[in-house]
Amino acid sequence: MLDHGAPPHNGGPAAPHSPGVGVRLMRRKPVERLVAEGGHGEGGTLRRSLGLWQLTMISIGATLGTGIFVVLGEAVPKAGPAVTLSFVIAGLTALFSALSYAELAGTIPVSGSSYSYAYATMGELIAWVCGWCLMLEYGVSVAAVAVGWGEYLNELLDGTIGVTLPAALSAPPGDGGVFNAPALIVVMLAMAFLLGGARESARANTVMVLVKIGALVLFCAIGVQGFRSGNYENFMPLGMAGVSAAGATLFFSYIGFDAASTAGEEAKNAQRDLPRAILLSLAIITALYVLVAAVAVGAKPWRQFTDSEATLAQIMREVTGQSFWGTLLAFCAVIAIASVVLTVLYGQTRILFAMSRDGLVPKVFARVSPRTGTPRANTLIVSLFCGVLAAAVPLGQLADATSIGTLFAFALVNVAVVVLRRSRPDMPRSFRVPLSPLLPALGFGFCLWMMGSLSTVTWVVFGVWMAVGLVFYFLYGYRRSRLAAPAPSEAK
């Protein structure tokens, strides 16, 4: 058994021993081993085919759209015109964590994202908790965004052929429906792209991202014509508490900037391109979010905002008095939100791939198709799960549950970057967080602050989710972990 704490001084394997439960829970996976295993799965390897452009588009595709197209209508009633400030606060929180992600992604360029970073720095139990949070972040956000896609599909159908899907087939139980068929359909379409290969999926995503950015620029150009400065007279009607609450909800809109870090084993030059892709995508996303939110509130009094997922299309229609522009935006949103589903689903499959390779979840998730170089069974299972979830659970509950899981995982990443700096100070890093450990500490603090702004119900859901995860770990992962009894060939 290796000592997975500090590396042995002589560079060789540690003496065999039988550690207790506490030691086994803290066993760490050396960075060199994580990198050496990169790309290797059961029966095949992932293909390195993604450059800086594709990685940046993956992060933008996974992020841009969720907050603006879907959650804006829920956030404005909480903060009023100060929702623009809420976006800035959420973006600042994301920035601190993005810096930590950038350093770790360049240092440990593997598919597991923050799960792998935690495994290398804080031990297996913390890594499992982080990975379980990522399942909540990625898997549930796929479902949440798919629900919003269905809303815009109805807007598009209404504006083009004058009909909409019946509520029973376009909304989940609790929202007036029986089964959300559009949400299931968009997840299945994303699955089809992913099964074709990473390069093909990246190409499709790039086209959809360009459509998405074009749609938001179009909204600003049209929406500014209805801008009324009087809509900003009472800028913060609900106080800082409202701004904070809206910021916590809007943090959901930044979920995905870390998606590039899940592509570490399929990037051509991961150490150089991953940090750049993460920071570049976040800068573009934040600028667009703040601009669109400012135009939206200027064009429509904040008290008139509802929790409709098709808020921007409604504003376009109200400003122009014509249904054409709203219909066009709805069409762009249908394409754009599909890219979020595609890229976030991609990230979920790659995280499960890494966890499966470590033995913490069943081996089926690490099987790679020799023909396409993708985890085929993994993609099928995750897609079916997310599709059914999208069809059966209301959006609002999903968004808040996703936010708390994401914030917790981000908090751990900020800790991991400090731990790795101290335990492996001489390790080559293609990017370094400036003013460390101050900025990681601020990132950690902001994450905890925003978690505290979420509702009690969300915390209860999170607690139940974590309890289920720990039960699964101790019944399965703890005993089957590859670090529990490494093969002789692995003891390097």
3D structure, described in words:
By secondary structure, the protein is an all-alpha fold. The protein has one domain: Amino acid/polyamine transporter I, CATH 1.20.1740.10. Helix content is about 65%, strand content about 0%. It is built from 18 helices and no strands. The chain has helices spanning about 20-25, 30-35, 50-65, 65-80, 85-105, 115-120, 125-160, 165-170, 180-195, 200-225, 240-250, 270-300, 310-320, 325-355, 375-390, 395-425, 440-450, 455-480. The chain is globular, with a radius of gyration of 22 Å. It starts with 20 loop residues before the first helix and ends in a 12-residue tail after the last helix. Mean pLDDT is about 80; it is low at about 1-20 and about 485-490. It is a multi-pass membrane protein. It is found in: Membrane.
Rg, Cα atoms, Å: 22 Å
What is the C-level CATH assignment? Mainly Alpha
The helix fraction, in percent, is: 55-70%
General shape: globular
Count of spatially separate domains: 1
Give the CATH H-level superfamily.
Amino acid/polyamine transporter I
Distance between the termini: 11 Å
Write the layout of secondary structure elements.
Elements: H1 21-25, H2 31-36, H3 52-63, H4 66-79, H5 83-107, H6 114-121, H7 124-160, H8 167-170, H9 181-196, H10 198-223, H11 239-250, H12 270-299, H13 311-320, H14 323-357, H15 376-392, H16 395-423, H17 438-452, H18 456-480
Helix pairs in contact: 3-10, 3-12, 3-14, 4-11, 4-12, 5-11, 5-12, 5-16, 5-17, 6-7, 6-16, 7-9, 7-14, 7-15, 7-16, 7-18, 9-10, 9-14, 9-15, 10-12, 10-14, 13-14, 14-15, 16-17, 16-18
